[in-house]
Specification:
Layout lengths: L4 E7 L8 H17 L4 E3 L17 H17 L6 E10 L2 E10 L2 E7 L23 E5 L2 E5 L3 E5 L6 E6 L9 H7 L4 E6 L7 H15 L3 E6 L16 E4 L2 E5 L7 E7 H10 L12 E5 L22 H26 L4 E4 L4 H17 L6 E5 L7 H14 L2 E4 L3 H10 L9 H22 L2 E4 L3 H6 L12 E2 L6 H14 L3 H11 L19 H5 L2 H12 L5 H11 L6 H17 L1 H4 L28 H9 L2
Parallel strand pairs: 1-2, 2-3, 5-7, 8-15, 9-10, 10-11, 16-17, 16-19, 17-18, 19-20
Antiparallel strand pairs: 1-14, 3-4, 4-5, 6-7, 8-9, 11-12, 12-13
Length: 637
């Protein structure tokens, strides 16, 4: 369970109704298969030893005694095996019958968890056989030992911070006040559910929604294991709909009617981070819970879950288009409100022919359309200098004309040369002063034009640049409203592409696609034979890597070694391991050293779950030390 990952399994074996010996054999076989795949929490269906559909056979002493014999057999089978196992069976206690989960580890039954909510509606009539289980644990004699019996029991992995397991059974998740709520509030991070949920039209979708929403509101991992083929089909059919969820997301889901073992890698570190972040999630021991320890070896979980290499960008094209439309609306509505508030009718924006300024211009146009202000009130200013290429200059001018905004050109070469002469900067010395002097001259021009026109300067810099500090302080770093401040670079590209694909103007579409095809560059160094020589990603690293690092560091609190591990998985074959490690070091070094630029950001709208505004999500001191993060990176082999 190193780095917080633990593999879980929901196992639906094919059973024979009332054949406890056969069913125990299938459970043991499924257990062994799951163990081979590295599963540490293994869950079987409700009443799996005898079958949920035994009906009045549940009253037979022979069946009940055989179930007890077989649970002892299964327990013995787990000896010296590294897992926590949940198996369903009927259990008599003081003359009453209960639907329970036997919780087993290393040859022992640790406890019996009874079902609390007993349904008696529709096709279910469990009250004919079972009594509701007791919440407060009490001692129960089983197989010569005193074992706890009750719903309010949690299972703590010794030496593994963050793993506390709770159990509920089938109907328990369907009720308003499920046992799982109390379990989570008492600290449980993983909930398991032994179920026998029959299939009817549309029920699988509802079941999926139920598990997703439960794992979301309780910020937990959820392992739902349901009965499948082998149960009686006299009146019902069971589909073996196993679901493994984590904080509102389905990690894995079984296909119906195929009796599968479903595996999932739950990230306990992610759950812990989210619970810490959401201060409204409170731990409250409403009842006296019993915590039972069990042992697991601390090993590196073999991961089968995947991590998108573009976490800010949905993989599904339909979802991606929906996301792009939503973000463009957030950006434009944010800017619209600012113009309405101050009664302003004019915007000033520096256009370079690059991705960021193109997106900012498109958003500004959209805002003015919403305000019913003529687009001519948008002043797109192009400011060619030493590094400007014909390609980007032409694209900036074409965009302004096609969008119907006012184009103004201010050649800044002479002004920059005079400034360099004044400060004794050699024009042949292409250092940071050479670059930043141009950026600050452009910002001064935009601010002064805004004063002249009684307008607002619209910022163009994106969130990825802010994370890396790839902006000139008091240059392109500054504006009067930064519409792209919440948009990472990998998403900027898709927003421009979405606009191109939906604008219904072939000429505009062609220009936008050429912008998309242009290398990312600040164009502050002279071109070579008319082509861009200063490529940002050659200097600071690929933005897709930096956006990946940024997302998992800020959104989920991953430490560098964990980010490196999942980056190797996500970018395998695309980047060598040493390349990933190199840019990971760059990311942390720049992220910490450049916080001072983020501490004084202009206003701008948050669009996603990760944001860098000092007034919103990220309150970070500008002089925080990066040492302990870099030390861990240096230890990576």
């Amino acid at each position: 369970m190193k780095q917080g990952f633990i593999k879980v399994a929901a196992v639906t074996p094919k059973i024979r109704v009332a054949d406890t010996v056969y069913n125990a054999e299938q459970i043991c076989a499924g257990l062994d298969e799951a163990l081979l795949r590295g599963a540490k929490i293994i869950v079987f269906p409700e009443l799996g030893i005898c079958g949920y559909t035994c009906e009045d056979l549940l009253q037979q002493e022979r069946l009940l005694s055989s179930c007890k014999q077989q649970i002892s057999r299964i327990a013995e089978h787990t000896r010296e095996k590294d897992a926590l196992v949940f198996v369903g069976l009927p259990m008599e206690k003081r003359g009453k019958l209960y639907n329970v989960a036997a919780v087993i580890s290393d040859g022992r039954v640790l406890a019996f968890i009874p079902k609390v909510n007993i349904p008696s509606y529709g096709e279910f009539y469990e009250t004919r056989h079972f009594r509701p289980g007791n919440h407060q644990p009490e001692l129960f004699s089983f197989d010569g030992e005193e074992v706890l019996f009750g719903a309010d029991i949690l299972f703590q992995a010794e030496g593994m911070e963050g793993l506390l397991v709770g159990c509920e059974i089938c109907e328990d998740i369907w009720v308003p006040d499920s046992p799982g709520i109390s379990h989570a509030m008492a600290g449980a991070t993983v909930l398991v559910n032994l179920s026998a949920s029959s299939e009817t039209i549309g029920k699988d979708s509802y079941r999926q929604m139920l598990v997703k929403s439960t794992s979301a509101k309780l910020i937990c991992g959820y392992v739902y294991c349901s009965s499948g083929e082998g149960e009686s089909t006299q009146d019902l059919v069971f589909g073996g709909h196993n679901i493994i969820a984590e904080n509102g997301a389905i990690l894995k889901e079984a296909k119906l009617f195929e009796n599968q073992i479903t595996y999932g890698d739950i990230d306990l570190g992610r759950l812990g981070m989210e619970r810490r972040r959401m201060n409204t999630f409170g731990y409250e021991k409403k009842k006296d819970y019993e915590i039972i320890p069990f042992s697991l070896k601390s090993i590196e979980t073999p991961l089968e879950r995947s991590f998108s290499h573009t976490p800010f960008v949905p993989a599904d094209s339909g979802e991606r288009s929906k996301r792009c439309e939503e973000i463009l609306s957030i950006q434009s509505m944010g800017l619209k409100k600012r113009f309405e508030h101050i009664g302003c009718q004019n915007a000033v924006i520096g256009v370079s022919g690059g991705l960021d300024s193109t997106l900012a211009l498109l958003v500004t146009v959209r805002s003015f359309d919403l305000l019913s202000i003529e687009r001519s009130h948008i002043r797109a200013v192009t400011m060619p200098c030493f590094g400007t290429t014909d390609r980007t200059y032409d694209n900036a001018c074409k965009l302004a004309r096609m969008l119907g905004v006012t184009l103004e050109e201010v050649d800044i070469r002479e002004a920059v040369e005079i400034h360099f002469r004044d400060i004794k900067q050699d024009l042949e010395n292409h250092d940071v002063t050479y670059e930043n002097g141009q950026a600050r001259e452009r910002t001064q021009i935009l601010m002064d034009i805004a004063n002249r026109e009684n307008g607002l300067v619209i910022g163009t810099g994106d969130m990825s640049e802010l994370a890396l500090g790839w902006a000139t302080y008091n240059g392109d770093h500054m504006s009067m409203y930064g519409v792209n401040a919440g948009v990472p670079k990998t998403l900027v590209r898709h927003l421009v592409q979405y606009y191109a694909d939906t604008c219904e103007n072939e000429e505009l579409k062609a220009v936008l696609w050429d912008v998309l095809d242009t290398p990312v560059s600040p164009e502050l160094l002279p071109p070579t034979e008319g082509a861009i020589t200063q490529k940002t990603e050659d200097l600071v690293g690929p933005y897709e890597l930096h956006d990946f690092f940024l997302y998992y560091m800020l959104r989920w609190g991953y430490e560098p070694a964990k980010i490196y591990r999942i980056a190797r998985m996500s970018f395998g074959g695309q980047y060598e391991e040493q390349t990933i490690l190199k840019w990971l070091k760059t990311f942390y070094r720049r992220f910490f050293s450049q916080q001072f630029k983020r501490s004084c950001l202009p206003d701008g709208p948050k669009v996603g779950s990760v944001a860098l505004s000092p007034r919103g999500d990220l309150r970070m001191p500008s002089d925080a030390c990066v040492r302990i993060w870099m030390e861990q990176i240096d230890e990576i082999k």
